[in-house]
Amino acid sequence: MASTILLQHDGPIATVVLNRPDKLNALTRAMWLRLAQVFAELDASDEVRCIVIRGAGTQAFAPGNDISEFATERSNVEQARAYGNDMRDAIETIGRCRHPLVAQIHGICVGGGLELAGLADIRICGESSRFGVPINKLGLVMAYAEIGALVGLAGEATALEILLEGRVFAAREALDKRLVTRVVADDKVEDEARATAQRIADGAPLVARWHKKFARRLRDQTPLTAEEYDEGFACFGTEDFRTGYQAFLAKQKPAFKGR
């Protein structure tokens, strides 16, 4: 199971690799289980400043769930419920992760692959990348836990367009639909994703985590509490704040410690 999800570390940048290149990185139940474990571990680490998620190779990020598993893992309602619970656990664990997440998207990114990429904070793809959710051709529904990121990115109307038509479309249209953040030349995807992750890692890690937390909290329409408003000033009590403004005045690059 572990070999189909690789975890690599390069200083404060962690890379999670969907590692089934012979199957275009099609997702299996075991991979969803492992993704939940890996992201729980990364979330708990204070050393991580940014996570990159990608598929192995350059042909695909992921084409969705492996249909060959359906006969044994999703052939009836009971099996599908168990499989769906594992997917939901992974999706929610990734969604709760406090560290910034960058999706490095090569090639095909459809179905469950798009659900996964949609959980990232920044999504970078190549010009030849393809997107969509053609599950209407399988008689398959995108359940509540899975549809959330799509609706959050594209809005209800566009999400329904994608789901009802089941069309696969190009990177520029994905950009127009807000499914991706940036489109670059195919041979520049890795470089751009890495540069993006490095820019994030060079910043104050506590600030990145606060910004991610605040943005997600604002999805909830309930009023903010006094304590939540006050948290917006907590950064002024950190060592990183003193490091940052002093480095700015001295025209030096700050070396943040995450405290």
Structure in words:
With about 260 residues, this protein is α/β, with parallel strands linked by helices. The protein folds into 2 domains: about 1-200, 2-enoyl-CoA Hydratase, Chain A, domain 1; about 205-250, no CATH class. The chain has 11 helices and 10 strands. A 6-stranded mixed β-sheet has the order 1-2-3-5-7-10, sandwiched between helices. It has a 4-stranded mixed β-sheet with strand order 4-6-8-9. Helix 1 (about 30-45) links the parallel strand 2 and strand 3 (about 50-55). The longest helix is centred in the middle third of the chain and has 20 residues, at about 75-95. The model has no long low-confidence stretch (mean pLDDT about 95).
> Mean of the pLDDT scores?
94
User: What would you give as the CATH superfamily of the largest domain?
Assistant: 2-enoyl-CoA Hydratase, Chain A, domain 1
Biggest sheet record: 6 strands, mixed
Strand order of the largest sheet: 1-2-3-5-7-10
CATH architecture of the largest domain: Alpha-Beta Complex
Based on secondary structure, the structural category is alpha/beta
| Number of self-contained structural domains | 2
Give the N-to-C terminal Cα separation. Answer: 36 Å
SSE order in H/E notation?
Answer: EEHEEHHEEHEEHHEHEHHHH
CATH topology of the largest domain: 2-enoyl-CoA Hydratase, Chain A, domain 1
Shape: globular
Helix content: 40-55%
Number of helices: 11
